[in-house]
Amino acid sequence: MEKFDLKTKLRQTTVLNRIASLAAGNIPEPVAIDFDCTTRCNLSCFFCTSKNILGELEFSKEELIRWADVFHDMNVKAVILTGGGEPLMNRNIDDFIARLRDTEQHPGIGLVTNGVLLYRYTGLENLDWVRISLDAGNRDTFLRLKGVDCYSQVINNMEQYNRVKQGESGISFLVINSAECSNIGEIYTAAKRARNIGCDYFEIKLQFDDAHVDIPLRTDEIECIREQVLRSLELAGKSFRVYINHNMTNLLKKGTSDFSEPVSCPVCSLRTIITPHGLYACSYYRGNSLYKYGESIPSEFRKIWYSEDRIKFVDQICPYRDCHFRCARKDSNIEIWKIAEMIKAGDSDLVSVEDVDLFI
User: Fold this and answer.
1) Which residues of 209-242 are buried (b: 16+ CB within 10 A; e: fewer)?
2) How far is CA 58 from CA 28, 99, 202, 238, 286, in A?
3) Around Cβ 32, how many Cβ atoms within 10 Å?
4) Which end of the chain is more exposed for a tag (fewer CB within 10 A), N or C?
5) Under DSSP, is residue 121 helix (H, G, I), strand (E, B) or coil?
6) Model confidence band, residue 323 (pLDDT cutoffs 50, 70, 90)
7) How much is the pLDDT for 212?
8) 3-class secondary-structure state, position 274
9) What are phi and psi of 294, to 5 degrees?
10) What is the pLDDT of residue 260?
11) d(CA 263, CA 321)
12) Nearest CA among 149, 147, 116 for reference residue 133
């Protein structure tokens, strides 16, 4: 099962059971949680879409422990440590991870990080995966993109991590082309560096603006990106994979982005985001009060999740009307309703697969 094959992941036994609950009009337990440990960050990326919510808010050690217990109690299957900040800025993250793993049936744990503080913690080698947002092929571009001169440190940290990891590691590359800086000519260099330091995969993504809409590119810029992507794909083999993000794939196929979306978002009933400043429908709307459905209080989460107010809130979300961008979960939403109809009809063609990767 490929890491970013979100449609196939929906056929896993646990996910099918929760879709069946949804199809029966019930409220399933969340499969996956995007979890922001902190709103603090140690870089100054000019292209950051979360810059308006960065600050000093973060969960305390006691709150993190309580959240871990809540996730166990609600049978959450995957927790992604990510954020409108840098997760590793919260010095209690080791305690949180240890608590999450403190049961036989613990959830999978993934980490999205800028990599600057990867050396600081001892428990990260046990994670299912770690992905560094690198976005540059050299020191100068990294500095211009992120405002801090630590490219070599990040590469070094990841190389050291790859020697002790038990799960997967990867590097993501956000293709940026702006007046401040362009990295479109460095995709291949970064991909090669990722392979050479022992990463398992390299992901190529397309930049979007603060509203999560893709930033237009000229034809010559698209062709430059295409050439770099094709060269990067040639690096792929048994021990190294290259993934092209949905927006990037769409751009290279059509030269434009497809904004068409379904009329409902059942993914919001299977995956949600928890931050120090509130609970949100999805990560695209982190910090947007219109898509906030509750306060982030561990003892209240179960009550909020099953409340009529949250259900009405989710039911009112219409991607076709509200989401003017190419959402990564568009195909998942379409597939969930397809699966739900097959379940209702007792369709024998619906075959489950073993749980392998519940980061849906």
Assistant:
1) eeebebeebeeeebebbeebbeebbebeeeebbb
2) 28, 18, 30, 40, 15
3) 23
4) N
5) coil
6) confident
7) 77
8) strand
9) 175, 170
10) 58
11) 7
12) 116
Instruction: Name the residue type at position 116.
Output: V
Strand partners of residue 129: 110, 168
pLDDT digits (tens, 9 = 90+) for 223-256: 999 999 999 999 999 999 999 988 888 888 875 5
Q: Which residues of 3-18 are buried (b: 16+ CB within 10 A; e: fewer)?
A: beebeebbbbebbbeb
Question: Is the Cβ–Cβ distance between 10 and 336 less than 8 Å?
Answer: yes
Q: Cα(63)–Cα(83) distance, rounded to whole angstroms?
A: 16
Count CB atoms within 10 A of the CB of residue 125: 15
Q: Between 68 and 246, where is the model more confident? A: 68
State how far the alpha carbon of 37 is from the alpha carbons of 17, 41, 80, 240, in Å.
29, 11, 10, 30
pLDDT in tens, 334-360: 999 999 999 999 999 999 999 999 999
Helix (H, G, I), strand (E, B) or coil at 243: strand
CA distance to 47, 256, 263, per residue, from 113 (Å) = 16, 29, 33
Q: Report the residue count for the chain.
A: 360
Which amino acid, one-letter code, is at 58?
A: E
Give the model confidence (pLDDT) of 121-130 as tens digits.
988 999 999 9
For residue 89, give every residue at least 6 positions away whose Cβ sits within 8 Å of its Cβ, in sequence order, or none: 37, 38, 40, 41, 42, 58, 117
Q: Enumerate residues 6+ apart whose C-beta is below 8 A from 88.
A: 111, 113, 116, 117, 118, 120, 121
Q: Which of 130, 125, 110 is nearest to 32 (CA)?
A: 110
Eight-state DSSP code of residue 87:
G
